Automatic annotation (TrEMBL), chains A, B, C, D, E, F:
This is GNAT family N-acetyltransferase. PROSITE patterns: GNAT. It comes from the Bacteria. Signal peptide: none annotated. GO terms for cellular component: cytoplasm. Residues 25-176 form the N-acetyltransferase domain. CDD domains: NAT_SF. GO terms for molecular function: protein N-terminal-serine acetyltransferase activity; protein-N-terminal-alanine acetyltransferase activity. PANTHER family: RIBOSOMAL N-ACETYLTRANSFERASE YDAF-RELATED (PTHR43441:SF12), RIBOSOMAL-PROTEIN-SERINE ACETYLTRANSFERASE (PTHR43441).
Length: 180, 180, 180, 180, 180, 180
């Protein structure tokens, strides 16, 4: 299991790992259970309708990783997958990338994602020579917005109607961090 | 020659057309002549170093068009290519896209790009069912910023260090238009 | 909607346009309604059995267009797709190509295809530097044969058993036009 | 060495074999020696300018063979490659194909190609269920035209300006054979 | 039908031929009839569950042949396919390859496979410049092991748990032949 | 930097990491310095002739990793690449794989490779559900042979003329470890 980083959180060992085929089933189970809350803010959730869909996405992500277009990690808690975090829209000309993430409802509230984002940045920003990392979050998604705020990201902008989910447009906040 | 639209401007017939292999040479000539001014704001200009580079880009754009990932048009003035305009980062989930464009210095100041953007939107927004079209321009690129302003786009945000060109980071303005 | 050309015919605006995914459904409906008459002379008609088949063909045609191997256009009448016209077997060594076309029965008899072929040639022959354009038609397909004849094509040959459709071989006439 | 067929001709053993990488060098030598006479009627001859060009063509032909789009054989005389014969424009809908061939000048006049065509047809026509096989030859290329005539092919048509070689257009004769 | 070689055996004409789409059905019938005995030693047999599976394998083998990665031949007896023989793990750096084969039960005991292996080697070893050819056979598969032994191969090694079939691991014997 | 595992060895932190483009230059430098000793036993060494060659290999390995065909890791010592270790010939049917490795001469003699192999197995064998792992080493390559021996691998066989390097054939020992 290839991992970007590992950290302890209470009695949990959290890892950010390369997506593997064997994660398709447990990840789909989580998504299916949390479908309603995920779909409120994340457009892809309603299109993920089978273990095969998740497997296809994992294969896609592995090849995008090989091509350095998407750096997507499965978050495991004591070896169980509980969510994902990624860098997408990676632009090696402007040295910038955007963060995406989601976490199983049963794993929320423990600081997993805040630490996952922190550790992902520590471990991948120098290697990719990123100058700017942006988190985009639905203005109403308090859980999601709080993560970059806790890590000292700066609020940059409100993007109008940036997300279409659950049948309507939502504004999004962008939070940024710059690196020398 | 496949065209998206045609319009008259004084004694010029302006067309937005599919990129063709035969445009590689005249487009490269324009880029090479205007290299200094283009490279001030556009990161790709310094990497376009031969007719073959331009041809490769045209082939890439044709296939991206077939895949509906990039809608790039060559702007012709009385059949001579003078610039490009495109929709990229097209997101069919959020019904949004971003505009890019550049124009030969010798063709600037005549309203070509303002009309090209206007016509591109009229002709392609309904078909792609776009809700939001964004123009991103270097804060110092007055010529570029003026185009969405003339067309009534709304200023949405200043994106910090969004562009890296000519060896330094530049802030960018985003201008948006929403459609029902 | 990228178009090669537009022309008026009585109260109709006819366009030759790039095939788009959204045409799959209306085109399939037309083919399904006219299946019997189309299959009499066109071998592909019996193999087009679902909207998905038509969509696959459209995707194929878009990529063939990007590769300059097939130039296929949907014919629209007041924005409704009513048929197709194309250049295939395009040979850039011998500067030659072959024309293919079909039209919904409800749109026949109005001069649409004769004008479509005329306009396609005007708009694409110079760009592709074609010296010879050939129309191949079943000797019994009066509607199809009449089109190149009306446009002054020269009868070149009868090709024996050139078409296999509806379970039997059919001779074909070739009509040609040469360009300097 | 995969072969379609083998036959004796005087003291020569002639084979029609799958193109192999090791043929690139001897085939290129032959083409280079006969370039002037080949280029008179065959458009590709002037574009074959190195052993690597020939190797690329062999690789292309092997993959086209795997895809059943081109059935191209190297003709060997006592294991030395002396020419090629192929079926191209294979159409499994109309059960038809077109023959192409060329032979080193030093191997001409011995009946090699006439027998090669005869044997290729015997060995491949039933398997591909071809109804019609067409030979297309420059009207002035006496050597080439004589081959289908010797094998009892029927003259079908004269195709106007069908070939562009040596800077001018040439008419072509088509000779056909039909199979039940 | 491209063949590597042909030989007589009593009143049978045996050929080693390129895999063709039309073999999928008869080969699948044989595999399905002999499934139990094949699956005892050959891991792939239980995964071959339809004519389409066999067709997919044939297409795969044709492309691998074009790429010179797998040289797989169908064995025909009086034009009926009765088995397969191949060279896989072909290593052009170490000039080595491994042999695989299987034969319909109704065709066994006549010397077909022993002669097929002998002829395959005669016809392909010089061309591929192979120094070492290895046959790997389940230690309990008497029929399979006897073939290289009859042809004078040397026993090289016993590979522990080399094959997993029928739910358990099997040791394998390797038999080798070296060429100058 | 994605890593499979990390371990301490004296004052060195050793990691097995995903190959990255930025490793191409330091790896090539090492290979070029050790070319003579590497080429004695490793056939690829003489074909690695530029940083670009190494970069191409890294890109190849990344895509093979995405496809689960090759699991190749760069070994870093305090973040400097000093060698590679991999699993190739991974067979998910027989649950087996083969190990390959090489180490810069300046890093040898410290136990790096013995520990790297041990850690690679601990971290990847359960996930890939491997039953058998084989190390193949030139019989004369004492350094290479000693590694599986130190880790308690069983000697399985001597493979005759298994490796062709430095212009001659070499026998190879295979050492195996089985897992439940």
């Amino acid at each position: 299991m290839l991992s970007l980083c590992t950290f302890k959180l209470n009695d949990s060992e959290i890892k950010l790992v390369m997506p593997e085929a064997r994660f398709a089933e447990p990840l789909y189970t989580v998504i299916d259970q949390d479908r309603e809350s995920l779909a409120r803010y994340l457009p892809w959730a309603d299109a993920m309708n089978s273990v095969q869909d998740e497997l296809n996405f994992i294969e896609f992500a592995r090849h995008q990783f090989a091509d350095r277009k998407l750096f997507l990690f499965v978050i495991t808690d004591n070896r169980q997958p509980v969510g994902m975090i990624d860098l997408h829209n990676v632009n090696f000309d402007s040295h910038s990338a955007e963060v995406g993430y989601w976490l199983a409802s049963s794993s929320q509230g423990k600081g997993i994602m805040t630490n996952a984002l922190k550790q992902m940045i520590i471990n991948i920003q120098p290697e990719l020579q990123l100058h700017k990392i942006t988190v985009v979050a639905d203005v109403d998604n308090i859980a999601s917005r709080s993560i970059p705020q806790r890590l000292g990201f700066t609020h940059e902008a409100v993007l109008k109607d940036h997300i279409f989910s659950n049948g309507q447009y939502h504004d999004a906040d962008t939070f940024i961090r710059l690196f020398d």
